[in-house]
Structures are given as C-alpha cells and as structure tokens.
Amino acid sequence: MQTTPEEEQTATVVRFDELGLNETTLKALDKTGYSSPSPIQEALVPAALEGRDCLGNAPTGTGKTAAFLLPILERVDERERLPQALILAPTRELVDQIGREFGRLSFGRYTRAVGVVGGESIYQQQRLLQQGCQVVIATPGRLMDLMARRTIRLDKVKMVVLDEADQMLDVGFQPAVEAILEAIPEPRQTLLFSATMPTPLRKLSERYLKNPVDVRLIKDNEDATIPAIRQAYLMVEPDRKFELLVRLLEREQPERAIIFCRTKHGADRVGTLLRTHGLKADTMHGNLSQAQRNRVLHAFRMGRLKALVATDVVGRGIDVRGVTHVFNFDLPEDPAQYVHRIGRTGRMGDDGTAFSLVLPDQGKLLDQIERAISRELEGDRVEGIPSPPRPVHHRPQRGIYMGRRPGGRKPFPPRRGGGGHHNNNGGQGGHGHGHGGNSGGGGGFRGRRSTQGAGRP
Ligand code: AMP
Fold first, then answer.
1. What's residue 247's pLDDT?
2. Would the CATH topology of 2-218+426-446 be identical to that of 229-408?
3. Could you tell me which of 41, 89, 163, 310 has the fewest CB atoms within 10 Å of its CB?
4. What is the pTM of this model?
C-alpha cells in the first residue's frame, strides 16, 4: 500500500520519551505543550546527553534553545550552587529569551539560571550569582567584566553553549569568546550554534570542539525562512479593524495575500467587504466543498485573486509560492498557530511580510506570540487610524530565571556534603537521576526572594 508523505511523516514522529530524558524533564515538557521534539531536538538531545560536543546550524524558530537547555537541565547538579553550564549569546534580548525558555523547561526543578548582560546593574547580577545558580546565560562583554572583578566562578562549568556564534563574532566578540573559553576548565562539553560558518568561526570550532556531532539541519525547512520575514503588528480598536485592513492593503499593494480570520463567519464577512472595495478576494474555509476549495486555490495560484481570506484549518494547508503578505485580521488564539500562518509567506527564500492586527485587550497574546517566535514584532501604524497603546504587562524581575514547582515556591534543597568541594560528575549520561523534589527540612536552606519571578511572565 502506498503512503502519502504526510502519513510517512506521522509514522516516523519521534517522542520526547525516546530521547533519553528523565521523568522530571518529561513532566516539564508536558507543561510546555510541545507535543513532539523538533528535528534539531531529535538530533541533538541524545548526543548532548551523552556528553558529546555538537555543532548545529539551526536558526531561531526551530526549537534549538530547548535542544541545548534540555541536556543542560539533565546534566547539571541542582544541589551544587555554582555555575555548571554557561550559555553565551550575542544580545541581551536573546539572553532573555533563553532565560524564559529555561523557566519553562525547568519546571519542577531547583535549578536556577542567572542572566548576565550589559546595560543593567552589575551589582544586581553579582548578587544573584552569589545567591547561587547552576546556569549562567551571558553576553560575552558583561561576563568578561564579572570575570575581571572575580565575582563569577566558572571553575565548575562543564557545559558551554555558544548560541548564534556567527553573530557574536560579527559584533566583535571573538576575543572575549576566546578568553572565556580559555577560562573554562577541561574536560568540558561545548555546543556551538551558528547559521553560517565563516572561516574565523570554523577555526574557533576546530580549536574548541572535540570530534563534534554535526547537526547541520535544514536548508529547505520552512521555519528556517521565518527570520527573513518582516513581521509587524498594528494596535487597533475593534470598530476600526476593517478600515485598517483596507488601508493597509492599499499601502502595501500585495501581489498575493492571505488574510487570516478566526471564524468562518468572520472570513465570509471580510471577503465580502473586500470585494465591495474592489479587491479581487475570495474566501476559503471548512464550509466549502473540496471542489470549491480547489477552484479558489487555483484562482489564487494563477494570480486571478489578490487575496485569500481563510480560517486556520484550511489556511495552514495552503502551499502557494509568491505569497507576499500574510495579514492576521484576527490574532490566532494559539501562538504556535501564528508560526504556521506566517509560514505561508516567505517560502523558499522569497520575501514576505506579515501584519497582525491587535486589539487593546490582546496585549498578552501578542507577548505570547513574540515568545513563541523568539523575537519582537515591529510596531506599525497607518496614518489617520487611531493606534491605541500596546499594553505593558508585568514581567518578572529581570536576570533570574527559574521554573515553577508543582508545590509552589520552595527553598533550595540542602547543600550536598555540607557544602564542601565535590567533583560532580553526576550528570554524565544524565538519565534517571532521582529528583527528590521536596527537600522536606534540614539545614542549609535558603528561601527564594519573594519578588523572584517564576520564569513565566
Ligand atoms: P527557538 O528556535 O529555540 O527560538 O524556539 C522557537 C519557539 O519554539 C520557542 O517559543 C519554543 O518555546 C518553541 N518550541 C521549542 N521546542 C518546541 C517543540 N518541540 N514543539 C513546539 N514548540 C517548540
């Protein structure tokens, strides 16, 4: 019997519990709602859990952050309060994004990460480091400052991640990166991620990576094109939404656009209104027969329609080259859906633009979407249409990242072996290291500061 490519794909889907991750991690993953590992996670996690050095070229949007955080979470000893994993990233935004993903994935653990970035109080960062953490996420410049002040200890670090290494070199961090790597004791595990491999980076990787597993993912992967798409949002009052869409279409003059609506009824309404404004638009949603859908899609593909108004169910299956614009007339309820939607444009390296219309009460959803794509959308507006302010939500105290624990806030577990030096190799292999969870009582406890955020805004 013949299988379709989709059937083949489902038949080979790997599950998180096949990657060698322990129960605590699987529970945290359960909470994130990620249903299965992304390709980079599937390839990288088992190798990294074995302690291998890895070289990956997966861009943002492919789940690479979790690919390196999951092995880190399994391999660090949460009872040891000195940094055991160091993640270097080129920008403070990226450090913050990694920290937030860390907060999600460390659910149920005592593991803490401290963000070390320029432009923020070094004293606060020193204080957080003193309080103890297992993971440091840093930009190279500020980390060098702390090293010069001798206020950070890196002698227990056994895992190093260089994220977006090409960008770090681009902004002149190469000497700092090298100095930092020199300061980390051997043996250590090094994971390097980079979208490109310029010669200086190749040399650096040859010098610092030992027999790395080469996880060169994706050239044609749809997600890989996402960073190239221009993505903007426009704040708007509900009663001005349609007017805004029309004005935006006039301004942008899209060659081919897909307009996403949340409901079939909404899609019909927008389709009709656009036609009354003289735009060659048609609607596609689940109420249409397959023959009708094919007809509409054919017209769109042939360029007879400028705009296709669609709901998610049918919209995500549309694979048409040359879609120059995606408009989220309604924001998707599920942030992951946003990625599917905008993946309709910018396909195979084409240029693409995505606009999202956001209502004043959808600020949180917009935050979630930005987190899901690990990048901030650009704010845009159209002359003459009022743009209400984007709501600012409370974010947790900057710089500290930790997971929520099922029983609420709990102090650190007791120090192991009375706080003496111990050569911690416990993470080797990483699997099934028993996780007591509740430390119950005993000495050496330290409570969490009440203002500390839980990693999830
Ligand atoms: P990254 O490539 O690490 O920037 O990840 C992009 C987004 O994908 C982040 O918001 C992650 O939370 C999310 N993500 C990571 N792994 C998975 C997965 N296995 N399934 C679904 N979403 C994921």
1. 95
2. yes
3. 163
4. 0.57
